[in-house]
């Protein structure tokens, strides 16, 4: 049976082991102790050390029967226990106070957080409402822009003129359907290519390029130019060029409008020809002859070239008309025109014109310095003789001529030359009548 001192020693020993475990655990936990509690923590660890020493002393006294009063040791341990409990309570109180402060701070922080959350939520709701409004406006603007873009595209494609938009780097950015059809390309063959790589004009790579002119500060302008499409065929276009600006007003290229006026130019040329051409003979009419003669006379002055003017009419033309009819008279006029064209070399002719009725005039270059026995007169008379021998017409064709040379030393107008040549022709006609009598 275990005696009481031995049992007491075993219990004290077990208590010592627990105390040792507590000390080790406390030492390991020391680095994690907050700074305000460090000092009290060290005192607690120290008291636990003293307890351990007291436990060991009790065990030694009991086991070795040392002459030490156990009551003193026990009293010391109890005193230390009371101090330990007091320190624990003090530490607990501090911790509880600290926890209450932190709880209070936490509550305040929570309240502030709730206020901030409410504030942030309200701000977020306002921001979301604003964003939704802006998104709706943006969506509406996008819809309007798409509708406007479709509308502008329809307007662009409905234009009768070909339209091309070019940026500052000569890159084609947009064309309408009329331009595509006019030039014979697919749209993909034009967009994002250099303008002169596809459609060639007579002003490409020159100072007359519409883009170059516009980029140099010029405003809208209009010009006629020849343009080649995909098939290489030239067409005359009336090109309208205008500056192309971005939303900020910066010049970023040009807008060109192309109107094919090839048919109009052909018609204009035809009308011009009609206005200066004699319908019956195909020669120049009086207006056309005077216009050509005046311009070539000025050129002859500058080049110092020898120029002759021949004036002629049909002898007894009135008799042909009166006896054989106007249709035969018209044939006589046509034959005379053909004889004149056949007599003169094309390289020498400046112009042949029917001045009216049966009167004709020829302006020509010639190397001869005198009008007497000019070879052109001889050729004309030879042509007449040959015609009269072989003709089946009911009349003999005879013409009188007057030939005048332009005098560079004494310049004369075309009207003055015609008057002198007419006088010469009249003299020729009178001399012929005398010879016939």
Automatic annotation (TrEMBL):
UniProt entry tagged with the keyword Transmembrane: yes
PAS domain sequence ranges: 148-192
Residue intervals of the GGDEF domain: 305-437
Lyase found in the keyword field: no
Annotated PAC domain residues: 221-273
Domain of life according to the entry: Bacteria
Record-annotated membrane-spanning stretches: 6-29, 41-61, 73-92
Coiled-coil region(s): 96-151
Pfam families hit by this protein: GGDEF, PAS_4
Keywords attached to this entry: Coiled coil, Membrane, Transmembrane, Transmembrane helix
Protein name: Diguanylate cyclase
């Amino acid at each position: 049976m275990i005696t009481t001192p031995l049992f007491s020693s075993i219990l004290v020993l077990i208590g010592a082991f627990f105390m040792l475990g507590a000390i080790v655990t406390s030492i390991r936990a020391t680095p994690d102790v907050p700074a305000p509690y460090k000092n009290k923590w060290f005192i607690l660890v120290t008291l636990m050390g003293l307890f351990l020493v007291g436990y060991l002393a009790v065990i030694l006294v009991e086991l070795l029967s040392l002459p030490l009063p156990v009551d003193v040791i026990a009293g010391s341990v109890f005193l230390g226990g009371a101090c330990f409990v007091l320190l624990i309570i003090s530490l607990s109180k501090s911790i509880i106070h600290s926890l209450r402060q932190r709880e209070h701070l936490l509550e305040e922080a929570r309240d502030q957080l709730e206020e901030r959350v409410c504030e942030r939520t309200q701000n977020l709701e306002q921001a979301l409402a604003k964003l939704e409004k802006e998104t709706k406006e943006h969506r509406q603007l996008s819809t309007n822009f798409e509708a406007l873009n479709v509308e502008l595209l329809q307007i662009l494609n409905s234009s009768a003129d070909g339209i091309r938009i070019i940026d500052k780097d000569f890159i084609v950015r947009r064309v309408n359907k009329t331009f595509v059809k006019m030039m014979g390309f697919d749209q993909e063959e034009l967009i994002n290519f250099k303008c002169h790589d596809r459609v060639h004009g007579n002003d490409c790579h020159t100072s007359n390029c519409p883009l170059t002119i516009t980029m140099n500060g010029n405003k809208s302008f209009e010009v006629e130019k020849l343009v080649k499409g995909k098939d290489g065929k030239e067409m005359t276009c009336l090109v309208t060029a205008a500056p192309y600006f971005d939303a900020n007003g910066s010049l970023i290229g040009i807008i060109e409008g192309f109107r094919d006026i090839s048919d109009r130019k052909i018609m204009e040329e035809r009308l011009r020809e009609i206005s200066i051409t004699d319908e019956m003979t195909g020669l120049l009419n009086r207006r056309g002859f005077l216009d050509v003669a005046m311009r070539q006379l000025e050129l002859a002055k500058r080049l110092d070239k020898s120029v002759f003017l021949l004036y002629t009419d049909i002898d007894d033309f009135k008799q042909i008309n009166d006896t054989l009819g106007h249709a035969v008279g018209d044939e006589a006029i046509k034959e005379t025109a053909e004889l004149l064209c056949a007599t003169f070399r094309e390289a020498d002719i400046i112009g042949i014109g029917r001045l009216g009725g049966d009167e004709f005039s020829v302006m020509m270059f010639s190397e001869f310095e005198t009008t007497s026995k000019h070879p052109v007169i001889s050729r004309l008379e030879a042509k007449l003789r040959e015609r009269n021998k072989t003709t089946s017409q009911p009349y003999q064709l005879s013409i009188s001529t007057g030939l005048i040379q332009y005098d560079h030393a004494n310049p004369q107008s075309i009207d003055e030359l015609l008057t002198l040549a007419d006088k010469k022709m009249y003299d020729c006609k009178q001399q012929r009548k005398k010879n016939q009598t």
